[in-house]
Each structure stands twice: as structure tokens, then as C-alpha cells.
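ok, trying the design again with the full structure, not the truncated one.
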């Protein structure tokens, strides 16, 4: 089975790079990234003995290098590295991969989330924040085990684990992709299936079309990874997302059903509305999630949240914004924790 997987990967790469191909253009390298600074004020339920400061800040700074060339047969070869520009992180590399882009599709190998994340994109539109900034997780303490960051794509299971993926070109509005990770964990070298989960597969398809002046899209995916031998850390999941855009308006929704081998199943859904006019962007989104607290028992954890956002583009790659958020969390004992607040910040993308 291992030999078959290896052969498939080599064959796919070989198909995309004919032996006679030579670099027609010099390799060009561009430098990019972003710096995002946020300040928030939040009020939330506290445990006995806690004294949570009502104010706080957080930052997201990343630096990226993108090198590419076009061969004389039209194939593009690209190498990409993105780093967390924060030395306190245990791992500085955020993403690192190479890809071959051809009229038949693209093959990508390295550290990056799978095709479900690439094809689906943002589950709902947001005016100021993005999936990289999870308000509930950054400004409010988590009181249960429900996943909030990257909650609606399969990146929640793999992060940017090493893998190989194929993504087809769009044909008649249809695009499909598949990703294989030897293990969904950040690991290099031999994968000991007795100690860690393995063989994670992500299969995703998307259809995009138009009706009159509106465009619409539907995306669905399936994920599976094996547990370690004698363990229960594998998972099976599927998701679906849909959206429609009309003029400056966009309405989108997403749903995910995660069924880990631990039995702590989780379902979540979200819906969001976005409007843009000139440099101004506005959005509202709501999410709700439920997770089984104890395998085999009807005891559940709950989370819901509503977020209102506005942003103003000062110039290319520069924007300021404000977000108001409020949410409830219910833990395994049935206790409720609520909290909300305001966030403001400045984003510089280059």
C-alpha cells in the first residue's frame, strides 16, 4: 500500500514535468507578508479566583518568499515559504511547499493545509478579520473543547502538516482536489502508526456558476484519518458550504460534521452577510456548534457567537476596522459562560 501511494505521487509529478522541459524565464522571487495589530476590550464570566483583565492586544506578523519560473512548455514551477515573524514561536515556518502548475491542474508537495481549505476558502465573508484571527479564541477564554479556529475546513485536523495534493483546473464550473498526509501531525520522517494517527485523506469538490447578475458556489468535502494502533485519535468528517454574490452583496453559509474515533462528535454551522461599497466593508456572521462531552452519553457542550464588523481601506493593502462580538459557551457540566467586547486594529498587507 505504501509503494502504491508513493508511485501515485511520483507519477503525478512526472506527468506535469515532461523530461524535455527547460526554464524559459529566470526564477523571480517576491517578498510579501503582513503585519496586523489589534486592541480589544472584553467582559466575560469568570471562575472563582480569576481576575481577567478587560483589555488586551494581540499581533499577527508573517513574512513570505515566493519564487517561480515558467518553463518553455508553459508549466509554472513555484516554491513558497512563509514564516511567523515572532521569535517566541516554537516553529517559525508557517507554510513551505513547492508546486507544479499546468493546464491539467496543479500538484503541490510540502507543508500546507489540504485542498478543502484551498478550494473552500473563507466559509463566510468577513469585513475585517479572517480565519487567521479567531476572536472568541483570542479575546475570550475557552470554556469547552469545541474547535473555533479553522472550524469549518479540514485544516482543523491537519494544520499545515506535510502532504501531497492535486487540484484540477476549473472545467464547466467544476473543480476537484485530493490531498494525502502520511500523518495529520507536524512530523517528518518515518510514521510509527503505533504512536500517532496516519493516512489522512481530504477529497473536495466545488461547483461555481452564474445566474443573471449573480454568481453562486457550492463546495463539499470528505476527510478521514486512521487512529494510531490501539488508539482513538483518528477522525472522519464531511462539510458543505454555499454562497451567492450579487453586486456588492455576498451571503454564505457552511456546515461541518466531525466524527472522531473518540466518540466526541461535533457539529457546527455558520452564516454570514457581507456588503462592500467603495473603500467601506460591512459584515455580520453567526455561528453555532455542539460537541458531545462524554462518548456514548447525551451530554453536550455548546458554543454560539455573533460578530459585527466594519473596515475601511486607507490604501492598497492597508485597512483599519472595528469588530463587536458576543458569545455563549456551555461546558460539560452545563455551566454557561458568556462574554463580549469590541476590537479595533490596523492591517498592513504587502
Amino acid at each position: 500500500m505504501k509503494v502504491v501511494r508513493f508511485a501515485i505521487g511520483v507519477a503525478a509529478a512526472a506527468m506535469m514535468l515532461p523530461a524535455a522541459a527547460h526554464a524559459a524565464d529566470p526564477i523571480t522571487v517576491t517578498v510579501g507578508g503582513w503585519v496586523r495589530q489589534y486592541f480589544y476590550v472584553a467582559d466575560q464570566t469568570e471562575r472563582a479566583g480569576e481576575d481577567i483583565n478587560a483589555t488586551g492586544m494581540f499581533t499577527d506578523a508573517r513574512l513570505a518568499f515566493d519564487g517561480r519560473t515558467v518553463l518553455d512548455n508553459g508549466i509554472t514551477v513555484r516554491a513558497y515559504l512563509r514564516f511567523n515573524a515572532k521569535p517566541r514561536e516554537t516553529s517559525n515556518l508557517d507554510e513551505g511547499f513547492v508546486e507544479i502548475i499546468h493546464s491539467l491542474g496543479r500538484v503541490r508537495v510540502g507543508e500546507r493545509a489540504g485542498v478543502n481549505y484551498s478550494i473552500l476558502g473563507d466559509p463566510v465573508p468577513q469585513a475585517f478579520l479572517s480565519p487567521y484571527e479567531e476572536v472568541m479564541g483570542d479575546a475570550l477564554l475557552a470554556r469547552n473543547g469545541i474547535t473555533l479556529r479553522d472550524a469549518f475546513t479540514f485544516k482543523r485536523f491537519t494544520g499545515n502538516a506535510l502532504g501531497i495534493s492535486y487540484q484540477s483546473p476549473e472545467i464547466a464550473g467544476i473543480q476537484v482536489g485530493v490531498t494525502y498526509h502520511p500523518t495529520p501531525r507536524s512530523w517528518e520522517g518515518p510514521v510509527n502508526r503505533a504512536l500517532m494517527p496516519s493516512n489522512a485523506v481530504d477529497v473536495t469538490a466545488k461547483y461555481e456558476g452564474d445566474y443573471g447578475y449573480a454568481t453562486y458556489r457550492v463546495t463539499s468535502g470528505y476527510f478521514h484519518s486512521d487512529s494510531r494502533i490501539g488508539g482513538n485519535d483518528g477522525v472522519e468528517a464531511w462539510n458543505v458550504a454555499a454562497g451567492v454574490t450579487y453586486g456588492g452583496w455576498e451571503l454564505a453559509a457552511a456546515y461541518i460534521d466531525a466524527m472522531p474515533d473518540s466518540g466526541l462528535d461535533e457539529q457546527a454551522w455558520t452564516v454570514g452577510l457581507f456588503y462592500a461599497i467603495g473603500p467601506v466593508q460591512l459584515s455580520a456572521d453567526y455561528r453555532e456548534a455542539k460537541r458531545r462531552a462524554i462518548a456514548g452519553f447525551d451530554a453536550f457542550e455548546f458554543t454560539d457567537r455573533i460578530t459585527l464588523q466594519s473596515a475601511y481601506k486607507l490604501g492598497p493593502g492597508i485597512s483599519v476596522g472595528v469588530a463587536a462580538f458576543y458569545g455563549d459557551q456551555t461546558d460539560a457540566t452545563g455551566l454557561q459562560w458568556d462574554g463580549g467586547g469590541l476590537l479595533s486594529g490596523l492591517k498592513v498587507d504587502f
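Keeping the full-length input from now on. The two ends are 44 Å apart (CA to CA).
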